Amino acid sequence: MSVETSDPATRVPTPDPHLTPSEIVAKATQLVPLLRESQADTEKRGRYSPTVHNEIAKAGLYRMLQPRRFGGYESDLVNYVKAMIEISRGDPSAGWHVSVTSGHPVVVAQSYGEQAQEEIFGDGHFVAPMSGAAMGATMEKVDGGYVVNGKFGFASGIPYATHFMGFLPDPTASEPVGLVFVIPKGDGYTMLEDWGDLIGLRGSGSNSVIVNNAFVPDHLIAKSTVLQTIGAGGNQGYRIHGNPLFATPFLVLAALEFGCIQVGAGRAALDEFERIISQRKVMGGMEMPPRFQDKDFQRIYGTALAKIDAANSVVLRVADVIGEAVAAAVEGSDPITPEIELRHYGEMAMVWQLVWEAGELLFRAASSSGSRDGQPMQRYWRDMCAFRSNGIHQFDFRASAAAQAHFEQPIFFF
Question: Which domain-ending residue is among 121, 146, 178?
Answer without folding.
Answer: 121
